Amino acid sequence: VAAVNALQSMKAELEGQRQRIHELEDLVSQFNVDMSGVMSLIGERFRGCDELVNLKLRELNFSLILQGSADDEMLQHVEKLKTENDQLREELRTLQEVHSEEMEELAREAADRIAEHDEL
User: Fold this and answer.
1) Which of 30, 56, 65, 97 is 20 to 30 A from 40, alpha carbon to alpha carbon?
2) Is-contact 24 113, C-beta < 8 A?
3) What whole-number distance in Å separates Cα of residue 76 and Cα of residue 92?
4) Is 2 in a helix, a strand, or coil?
5) For residue range 80-90, what is the model confidence (pLDDT) as tens digits?
6) What is the residue-wise DSSP string for 66-112?
7) Residue 62 to residue 94: CA distance in whole angstroms
């Protein structure tokens, strides 16, 4: 009777571990989907900023040709856009690092749980 109870307890523990592994896999999958969406939005924003900076540079060049001198306000605006673009690029790099670290952590957790499962 004690052996049967121990076996049933081990089976229940094994099923619990399997369920936790499945939940972790679901979390990893959802995280990947969420991060893909975030990265896509960031990429779109970068492209928009790049296009805007390029447009402003063309306007500035055109202004220089027509006026023979740069408009200080336009130069400041272009510099501001460049700065914002650089900040966005840094944010993307940071997000990519965080995503990579979180994925490594999730992979380690999954490996640990699988190892625990295998030991049972």
Assistant:
1) 56
2) yes
3) 24
4) helix
5) 888 888 888 88
6) HHSS--HHHHHHHHHHHHHHHHHHHHHHHHHHHHHHHHHHHHHHHHH
7) 36
Segment 33-57, tens digit of pLDDT: 888 888 888 888 888 888 888 888 8
The beta-carbon contacts of 74-82 under 8 Å, at least 24 apart in sequence, are 78/53, 81/49, 81/52, 81/53, 81/56, 82/53
Alpha carbon separation from 104 to 28, 90, 115 (Å, rounded):
10, 21, 16
Contact predicate 74/56, CB 8 Å: yes
* pTM for this entry: 0.44
Burial-class residue 82 by CB neighbours within 10 Å (0-12, 13-18, 19+).
middle
DSSP string, 22-53: HHHHHHHHHHHHHHHHHHHHHHHHHHHHHHHH
